[in-house]
Each structure stands twice: as C-alpha cells, then as structure tokens.
C-alpha cells in the first residue's frame, strides 16, 4: 500500500511536533543501563569498533558489499551490543535483532487490510507484554509482527536519506502500530540511522519530539546506550506499563492482571476478564484513553479500570465521580490513582448494564413513535430505524472523538 496513504492516516492524529535543538536528551537517557567503563571495555574488545580510528567499522561505500545491503553492517553492530550487555535475554532469544527490510509487518485490524510496513531492523521480543501476531483467515501463523517487537530501527545510507518530514512520518507509522498492538505503551521510541549519524524519535500522548542528528563515531557511548534502551529486558525502559502483566502460552496472551491503588491506598491486584482492552484510541496524540475489564476476586465484582492522560491544570474525572458517589444512574468509583493518571475503577455490573438496556429500549420506542406519526401525516417523510447494533456502548465508542488536549509535555531528560 502506498506510503502517502499510510502517512496521511497517521499524521492526522500525530499532534504537535517539536524539534529538539540540542542532543542533550539523547545523551542523558539510559545511563543506568551501562556504565562508561563497561562501554569502554566493549569498544576495546569489539571487532566492529576501531579504537585507533575512533570510529565504527562501517563501509565507506556500500557498492562494494557482496550483498549490497546497507542493513548488515549496522545489524552486526547492534546485535553485538545486545549480546554483550543482555546476555541472558539474547541467549533466551527474548531480545533479538532481526532484519525486516523485506518483511511485511501487518498493520492493526483497524487499518485497511492491505496496510503493511517494512522497518529496516526490529528488536524482536518475548515476555509478558509480547505475543505472536494474530492473523485472521490464515492457517499459518507468522512469527513476527508489531505485537512482539520492542523497537523499530530505520536505516538509510549517506546520500539516500529522506527529508526530515518523511523520516518523522515513517517513524510515526511504526510508532502508531506499536501503540495499537501494545496498548499499555506509555511511549514509543524509534531509532533512525543514516550513515554515521543517529536520530531518535520519541512519541507519547503529547505528540512527537525528535533529536538533531548525532555522530555515532564522536559519541559511541550514546549510540550504545540508545541500543540498550530500545532492547532492554526491563519493559518499563521500553515504555511499557509494568502494572499490567500477562501470562503467555504458545506465544499468545491467555490471562493477565492489573495492579492499581485500592481504596485503602495500597496496591491491589485485579484479574483481567479479557486480555485485550474493551476500549482504546487509535491516535498517538490525545487522552490515550484505555479501559480494561477486571474482576475483583475478593468481592466477586466486575469492574472497569480506566487509564488516560490529561492536562495538569484540568480537573481529574475522579473528582466529579467522587462527588457523584451514591447517585443513582452514575457509575460508582471504587478507587483512583491520580499520580499515575489511572483514574478509575468503575462498577459496570451494577450500573451500566441496566442503563444501556433502557437506552436501547428508549431509542426503539422513539423510532416506533416517529414512524407512527409519519404514517399518520400525509406526505411526511418517514425515518428508517437505525440498523441493529450489538451494543450501545460500541455505538458510543465509534462516534466518540478526541477533543480533549493531550497531557502536558513531559520533561524528556528525566525519562528513560
């Protein structure tokens, strides 16, 4: 499918784009993952780095390579970093660098079925947050997709680089798919490599920020740390919410838990009724609302946990729901955690179901009344009843638009 169609789809929901004027952000992150001395030892012993020339051993020209591939040299370097620092993860194949420049990665089911992407490289991942791709109407299951990759890496050779507008659009396409396939993502970072320079794209619910090009020969430490951050066995480093965990069997998620703050201000673990959220947004920018159905094993109640971003100056939804406690017809708040923007756990079993049934019945009555009135009035046009819907909740969800501004931009130097 054409790049322009995919670009237009993602840019409409990207939000503000900010170009960082210095490389301070790229240099400041992931320092806890490797010390300078550990990186120095790697550089001294690696066959992919020249201490005498103080540069990575990348070809001056790709025309003389046997396979004419610009991906192989950088894949070798990145793989060497992952194997050296994440030995257990590499040995267990929970983190693996894979060349995907000729592999179609299917987009979300929400997108046209012909939409695919081919990142140059990806970090293939196994763990609680990852699963094999789900493919409808296909007998053989693919082993790689946006549901089981930790990061995407885009590679271009010098002289073949894209304009920055195209680079960020390509990175945004990858980032959106990762948000959709890994709905508990807090942020996504995409690495772009052109010749001997890197650029890092950071996506969260406040939009996109990207770094200026950074010379990986002049600063090999930052290059190594960025690779480690994008391949970290610690899922929080990748931008995933560690409070949501799944049990994975035969490569697919089969059950899970959500840990949140209880009414007594202590951590409480709820069991996921469904492994997928019942609601999530398909845009990068905005509230990023996501809802999970959970079960409280102690009380037997079925609840909804809702996560969302908001501006700091906006009143949290939990404030209004706290005032509405005990009011008939209003979902009752069980607990909230405003510090992490996990606002709510709502009792759906006692409040939503009956209201939605009444809502459906009310619409049917109005349609029937209108048809009767139209029939009795000569020449008056009749309104055809709405097509049947499986759930009024679904109908509301499809009509909903994201009008609330996104959360205040994070201080990125403090992330990672």
- Over all CA atoms, what is the radius of gyration? 25 Å
Q: How many β-strand runs?
A: 19
Identify the overall geometry: globular
Number of helices in the DSSP assignment: 10
Q: Poorly predicted ranges (pLDDT <50, ≥5 residues)?
A: 347-363, 379-416
Give the overall pLDDT as a whole number.
Answer: 81
The share of residues in extended strands comes to 15-25%
User: Helicity range of the residues?
Assistant: 25-40%
Largest sheet: 8 strands, mixed
Q: What distance separates the N and C termini?
A: 34 Å
Helix/strand/pairing category: alpha+beta
H/E order of the elements? HEHHEEHHEEEEEHEEEEHEEEEEEHEHH
Explained architecture:
The protein has 416 residues and is α+β, with helices and mostly antiparallel strands. 28% of the residues lie in helices and 22% in strands. The strands form four sheets. Strands 1, 4, 7, 8, 9, 10, 11 and 12 form an eight-stranded mixed beta sheet that branches. Helix 1 (3-11) packs across helix 6 (164-181).
SSE topology sketch:
Elements: H1 3-11, E1 17-19, H2 24-28, H3 36-45, E2 49-50, E3 55-56, H4 71-85, H5 87-91, E4 95-99, E5 105-106, E6 116-117, E7 121-125, E8 149-156, H6 164-181, E9 188-194, E10 197-204, E11 207-210, E12 214-215, H7 220-230, E13 244-249, E14 252-261, E15 267-272, E16 279-280, E17 290-295, E18 302-307, H8 317-323, E19 342-347, H9 348-376, H10 392-399
Parallel strand pairs: 1-11, 8-9
Antiparallel strand pairs: 2-3, 4-7, 5-6, 7-8, 9-10, 10-11, 10-12, 13-14, 14-15, 15-17, 16-17, 17-18, 18-19
């Amino acid at each position: 499918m054409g790049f322009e169609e995919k670009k237009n789809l993602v840019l409409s929901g990207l939000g503000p784009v900010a170009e960082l004027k210095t490389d301070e952000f790229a240099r400041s992150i992931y320092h806890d993952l490797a010390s300078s001395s550990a990186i120095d030892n790697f550089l001294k012993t690696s066959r992919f780095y020249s201490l005498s020339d103080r540069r990575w051993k990348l070809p001056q020209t790709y025309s003389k390579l046997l396979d004419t591939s610009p991906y192989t040299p950088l894949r070798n370097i990145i793989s060497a970093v992952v194997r050296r620092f994440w030995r257990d993860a590499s040995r267990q194949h929970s983190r693996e660098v894979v060349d995907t420049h000729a592999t179609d990665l299917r987009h979300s089911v929400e997108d046209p079925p012909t939409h695919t992407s081919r990142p140059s490289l990806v970090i293939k991942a196994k763990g609680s947050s990852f699963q094999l791709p789900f493919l409808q109407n296909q007998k053989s299951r693919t082993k790689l997709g946006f549901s089981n990759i930790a990061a995407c890496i885009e590679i271009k050779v010098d002289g073949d680089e894209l304009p920055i507008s195209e680079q960020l659009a390509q990175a945004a396409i990858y980032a959106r798919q990762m948000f959709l396939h890994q709905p508990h993502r807090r942020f996504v970072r995409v690495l772009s490599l052109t010749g001997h320079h890197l650029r890092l794209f950071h996506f969260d619910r406040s939009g996109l920020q990207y770094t200026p090009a950074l010379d990986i020969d002049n600063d090999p430490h930052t290059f190594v740390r960025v690779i480690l951050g994008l391949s970290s066995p610690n899922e929080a480093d990748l931008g995933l919410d560690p409070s949501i965990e799944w049990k994975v069997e035969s490569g697919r998620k089969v059950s899970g838990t959500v840990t949140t703050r209880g009414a007594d201000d202590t951590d409480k673990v709820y069991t996921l009724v469904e492994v997928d959220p019942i609601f999530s947004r398909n845009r990068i920018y905005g509230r990023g609302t996501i809802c999970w159905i959970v079960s409280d094993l102690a009380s037997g109640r079925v609840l909804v946990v809702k996560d969302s971003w908001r501006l700091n100056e906006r009143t949290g939804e939990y404030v209004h729901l706290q005032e509405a406690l005990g009011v008939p017809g209003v979902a009752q708040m069980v607990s909230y955690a405003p510090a992490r923007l996990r606002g709510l756990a709502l009792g759906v079993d006692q409040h939503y179901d009956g209201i939605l049934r009444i809502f459906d019945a009310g619409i049917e009555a109005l349609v029937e009344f209108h048809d009767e009135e139209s029939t009795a009035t000569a020449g008056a046009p009749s309104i055809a009843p709405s097509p049947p819907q499986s759930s009024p909740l679904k109908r509301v969800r499809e009509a909903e638009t994201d009008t609330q501004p996104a959360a205040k931009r994070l201080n990125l130097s403090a992330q990672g």
